[in-house]
Specification:
alpha+beta; Endonuclease - Pi-scei, Chain A, domain 1; 4-stranded mixed β-sheet; 4-stranded antiparallel β-sheet; 33% strand
Length: 302
């Protein structure tokens, strides 16, 4: 009966959110159920692939509905999405599922058979969505084609364009307007840690630990890899020094966006006035993203 309930719940979810049907499904960030990506030769336990292998054995119908033809990867990304569970309480006015994440987490290792006790799902839990990687706090200001706005206001106001920093002929940075492919947010408000970066100008950036920022050596660094004294690149192309970095507890949702381009050198936007990678950068490891063509921003001398 629980397997039938799970299949029905996923069908309900897909009906409520048509964009979730692959290849246009919309993975969201799941801080409450954060899993690592899987690399060839590594153990599956604790990874996104491990979760999907568990689902494949325990509920093949739900797996096929979630991942037609076995495609587990996000569109235009090398990042594997995975299913998460929660306690569904309602569907809101935006046709999104309202749920309590609860304390139970689905396993990340496949049992030998669908009859295994490891396939048992608590009676009040159902599939609530797809998971992916991380973001900025809702009050962080983003430069759009017209003004600077908190990212949550952009989502609520259906803003569909963002200012992208590109290198001008005089080596300054200028803004180029691009469309927004989509916004990403946490599936549920949850306790998590953020990094608060304070600049010499007084600007404060509040980010997830893996949110990428551009430094003065024209490399992307995740927020938790930055150090006091590092310099970030501003929207004008100037370099501003970091004067403090704090890790703080945070309860709520984090947000991100993806620029409407597959060109990583333009998959950028300004957070609190500083150059940030969009969601596509968060789907790459640090070594991968620094092999890409981000140095097109560095000017003639680099």
């Amino acid at each position: 009966m629980r397997l039938l309930t799970k299949a029905f719940a996923l069908t309900l979810l897909l009906a409520a959110q048509p964009a979730l049907a692959l290849p246009r499904f919309n993975p969201e960030r799941c801080a409450f159920d954060s899993l690592a990506q899987w690399n060839e030769g590594e153990p599956l336990t604790g990874t996104a692939r491990g979760r999907n292998e568990w689902l494949k054995v325990c509920n093949i119908g739900a797996y096929k509905t979630a991942f037609p033809k076995g495609n587990e990867f996000e569109p235009n990304s090398s990042r594997r999405a995975y299913i998460t569970y929660g306690k569904i309480t309602a569907i809101d006015e935006n046709h999104e599922i309202v749920f309590d994440p609860g304390s139970w987490r689905a396993p990340t290792i496949a049992p030998e058979s669908p009859g295994s006790a490891d396939c048992n799902v608590p009676d009040d839990y159902d599939i609530v969505g797809y998971c992916t990687s991380g973001c900025v706090t809702p009050d962080q200001s983003i430069e759009t084609s017209l003004s600077q706005q908190p990212i949550l206001d952009m989502i609520r106001g259906h803003v569909n364009q963002v200012a992208v920093p590109v290198r001008a002929s005089d080596d300054s940075l200028r803004s180029e307007v691009h469309g927004i492919r989509r916004f990403t947010k946490d599936l549920a408000a949850t306790p998590q840690k953020i990094v608060v970066v304070t600049m010499v100008t007084g600007a404060r950036l509040k980010l997830s630990q893996n949110h990428p920022l551009l430094t003065s050596d024209f490399r992307m660094k995740n927020a938790d890899q930055l150090k006091v004294g590092d310099r970030l690149v501003s929207g004008s192309g100037s370099y501003d020094k970091i004067v403090s970095i704090e890790e703080q507890p945070y309860f709520g949702k984090l947000y991100n966006l993806s620029v409407e381009t597959n060109d990583l050198s333009k998959s950028l936007y300004l957070v609190q006035g500083y150059v940030s990678g969009d969601k596509k950068f968060q789907d790459l490891s640090v070594s991968e993203l620094n092999r890409k063509h981000i140095r097109s921003l560095a000017g003639k001398g680099l």
